[in-house]
Amino acid sequence: MSAENRHRLLTTPLRDIHGELGARMIEFGGWEMPVSYKGILAEHRATRERAGLFDLSHMGELLVGGPDAGSFLGKVLTRDPARARPGTGAYSLLLNPSAGIIDDVIFYNVGETLGWLTDAAQEATYLVVVNAANTSKDADWFLDNARGYDVSVSDGSRDIGLIAIQGPYAQAVLAAVFAPRERGADPERVLEDLPYFGVVRGSIRGAECLVARTGYTGEDGFEVFSQAWDAPRVWHALMDAGPACCPGGLEPVGLGARDTLRLEMGYPLYGHELDESTNPVDAGLMWTVDMKGDRNFVGRDVLVGVLSREAPARRELVGFEVSDRSIPRQGCLLAASHEVPAGGRPDYIGSVTSGSMSPTLGRPIGMGYVAPRFAAPGTQVAVEVRGHLSPARVVRPPFVPSRVRKAARRTVQ
Amino acid sequence: MPTGEIPEGFSYTDQHEWVRREGTRVRVGITHHAQSELGDIVTVELPKVGKTVKKGQVLAELDSMKTPAEVFAPVSGVVEEVNSDLAQHPELVNEDPYGSGWIAVLTPSDPAEMGSLMTAEQYAEFLRSQAG
User: Fold this and answer.
1) A120 strand-pairing partners
2) Are residues A297 and A78 in contact, defined by beta-carbon separation less than 8 angstroms?
């Protein structure tokens, strides 16, 4: 990469820290981001065994507020925002009118205004976290759809820092530095009581922040939103607290391990499992779609048509494990069998969307779309890597047990 | 055992392979720079003993966590030995690229080809020019 190009990339407030840590930097979605520090394997294992620290400040944050905020979001989200009580959020999709996936997002009904986080969000009570590469696309989509609604929509991405802490010791480390806003509250208890997708206000070493119990790793963990210029302070506070709370301390983790961690969980990644030609039925994401009632979200009509069609679906997203050491990558073809009749061609049934060596399993794993008759878990298939067919087996993710905080049982209302 | 990132006494290619003369044979691997760029190496597909390779042809195939990669034959010749330790311990290529992370031993078929390889100093200069 030439020096000139390097200057055109966006950098996060933690760029200097990554440099000091000797991070290997790459270009990702227009940003200069750390792909690894000590190495993908070490960082992946540290997150599963102890706790990892992630710079996610490149992600986009859209702020929504005003009297029609709920009904506006009800139009663009597949998830019904009315089901997210104040102080909670959910994973959702944004669909285009053809039911193609514009982005996958997490939205939070924070329940109070977010003007402290960014000046542009004086009225905003909803925070929508979007993929870095889709930020301006999603912001434009929100603004286009906001016409006719009494709603404020702003893009706070450049003003907001985001750091994730994930792993079995994540709560212990965070509790050591987190001061809940509620005076006298015990940080250990506040964090212990915070439900999955819950958010809570507080501060870390004097930096105001919003803490969400979410993540992209399958471990218990939190994502910490702060003003961008406070992000280094939050990072250092957590790193400094690490050794006392967690054997071996906190490990900085880059995008390389972030990808292998999510892949072990079978979580989709936009641009791999998801794009605008993919609908939630294909992607196995109908659980993010609230069809109840007459909420007319964008893409609903086409989705109803897809669901009611009697013809079989075109394709289905599956996970698979490879029997030898061949590592599948995006674009590799999937076939019905690793054996090909003499003089014949493989019976191709689909293609790989993501693949890697699984550090936890020590075996190559992947995800991909296949013809639905090959989608049942246990089906023997094959993946073509470097011109060679390797046997593989369809697996229903997660490949590794999930350890996210289970949703608290709701009392009958 | 040679130490350091570009040991003396080895020859180098612009594809980041190293070559060490051992009598009538040569031992081949990838350089410290190469393994560092690749990151954690997780699979190594070795050539078959007895295979004839031409200079510049694919000798072995690696996968790191980030990417697939190819090791090219630095000289033409016949594969005499391969490092079977790498099947169970691909990380040896990262940990000890000039020692226990070696990839193959060849009997070169064209002695003149050794002359077109780089010295340690030339490879160091080559890396500096690439970093620009």
Assistant:
1) none
2) yes
**Strand positions, DSSP E, chain B:** 11-12, 17-22, 25-30, 41-45, 52-53, 58-64, 68-72, 77-82, 104-108
Tokens 């069998």 sit at which residue? A337
Q: What is the Cα–Cα distance from B30 to B83, expressed in whole angstroms? A: 13
The pLDDT value given to residue A406: 80
Nearest neighbour of A256 by CB, restricted to B63, B65, B94: B65
Neighbours of A330 (CB within 10 A): 16
A257 — phi, psi (to 5°)?
Answer: -75, -30
Q: What is the distance between the alpha carbons of residues B84 and B74, in angstroms, rounded to a whole number? A: 20
The per-residue DSSP string of A171-239 comes to HHHHHHHEEESSTT--HHHHHHHPPTTBEEEEEETTEEEEEE---SSSSSEEEEEEEGGGHHHHHHHHH
pLDDT tier, A196 (very low <50, low <70, confident <90, very high otherwise): very high
pLDDT for A409: 42
Q: Are strands B58-64 and B41-45 parallel, antiparallel or unpaired?
A: antiparallel
| CB contacts, 8 Å: B68 with chain A | 327, 329, 386
A293: alpha, beta or left? (left if phi > 0; alpha if psi -120 to 50)? left
Q: Which of A2, A322, A325 to mutate to test the interface with B (most CBs of B within 10 A)?
A: A325
The whole-angstrom separation of Cα A310 and Cα A333 is 28
Closest A-chain CA to B38: A39
Residue for token pair 């954690």: B40
Which chain A residues have a beta carbon less than 8 Å from that of B63?
Answer: 325, 327, 357
Q: Helices A135-145 and A69-76 meet at what angle, rounded to 10? A: 120
Q: Among A40, A43, A329, which would you mutate to test the B interface (most chain B Cβ atoms within 10 Å of its Cβ)?
A: A40
Q: What's the confidence (pLDDT) of residue A8? A: 82
CA B51 to chain centre: 16
Global confidence as pTM = 0.94
pLDDT value at position B1?
30
Chain B nearest C-alpha distance from A216 (Å)? 19
Q: Which residue has the tokens 């990892």?
A: A52
Q: What is the mean pLDDT of residues A367-386?
A: 97
Q: Exposed/middle/buried for A59, CB within 10 Å: 0-12, 13-18, 19+? A: buried
Which burial class, exposed, middle or buried, applies to A242 when counting CB atoms under 10 A from its CB (0-12, 13-18, 19+)?
buried
What are the start-end ranges of the H helices in A219-351?
231-245, 255-265, 300-308
Q: Give the pLDDT confidence score for residue A198 in this predicted structure.
A: 98
Low-confidence ranges of chain B (pLDDT < 50): 1-3
Specify the pLDDT at position A149: 98
Q: Is the pLDDT of residue A226 over 60?
A: yes
Q: Is the pLDDT of residue A165 over 60?
A: yes
Question: Mean pLDDT, to the nearest integer, of A251-258?
Answer: 98
